[in-house]
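hiii, so i know i said id send this last week but things got crazy w the move. better late than never?? heres the sequnce for the chain we talked about at the cafe, plus the structure i predicted for it. fair warning i was half asleep when i ran it
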Amino acid sequence: MKPHHSPIKVYPTSWDKRNQSNLKKDWEIRYSYFSDEFPNGKIIRFKGMNHCKTLNEKQDCTKMLIEKELFALSKGFNPVIREYEVIDDSLISPSTPFIKALEISLKSFKGVDSTLSDYDNSVKHIKKYASKLGINHKDLNTVSKGDIKQLLMKMSEDGYSNYRVNKTRSHLSRFFSHFVELDIFLVNFIEGIKKLEHESSVRNIIRTSEDWKKFHSISKINHHEYAFAYIFLFSGSRFTEMAGVRKCDVELEKSIFWINLKKGGKHKRVMRPINMEVWRYWKEYYEIAATDEYLFSEHRIPGAHPVKARALNEAITKHLKLVGLKMKGYDLKATFLNLVSKEHGITKAKELAGHTTERTTRIYAIDYEEHMVEQNRKLKINTQ
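okay and structure toks below
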């Protein structure tokens, strides 16, 4: 049976008349939806106008709600399951509803779990504000730069941080790049929407000898957590990459290990150096692990299954706090790159981190600008 519905009605039936007594009544929109699952019809009821203060506002709001419902139904919306029914969930056309197009696209995106989860979170924000603006059901090819700008403005008005708004904009840009590749848009107009000014929160890193004593005292609490934290500090890698390291990825005699680098939807195998400061800890793990075991598995002991990157970060963060260091696990990467940039320059820090630009490295090398000023202050120039 092809899905269809009965005429949409409003109760009270005199809702569109100049009857002031209707203002105090509880209004409801109602119709029957017919499909294979409901051959006799499923009654659909919804409201959304009873908050209005005047009769005219209530009538206008009701008309808008009816128009939105009819438009959604015309696009294949199933009001019972509150989803759009499409023949092939992998296909996007110019007439695919905006939010549905985002959801379909997300299924085709490649990346690590944390990245995809971040995109999914953004889609939830976008869905919320697209619904408020009435653009969630718009044909994809009719969504404009102005629509997206207003959506981001609404997020700002509701108190979302500039960072969160910029993140949503960035994710929307990825979606619209995908739509450009599908020939639905000629250009990615999201790039024409300016980012909001945002200052990154200051990272807490290890700087003093007292801080280093606290860090090393983790070994007295949990040797395996300490060994991994120390290895991570010198790795220049991300938790996602370290979680995937197996014994077969380590070449102790060459002091190197291999990671699977996943960025921008691309995967490649990359070599990383084992710093001599932590070589002995790598050796410890190497000797107790089986060939195919993940070195840093559950409780930071080699095992058959990898742990989530988040678990690694949370475990280190927990132990850093236990010894009195107010920092997160990932701040150890910033600690290392900050030291490298001070001693060997930003280019070397960039190389060890595997960054494509120095701009990214400077986010981690917190004191780099200060180091440069100090070096320039000490420059000796012969003026004689």
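btw The first strand starts at residue 4 and ends at 5. thought thatd interest u
miss u guys!!
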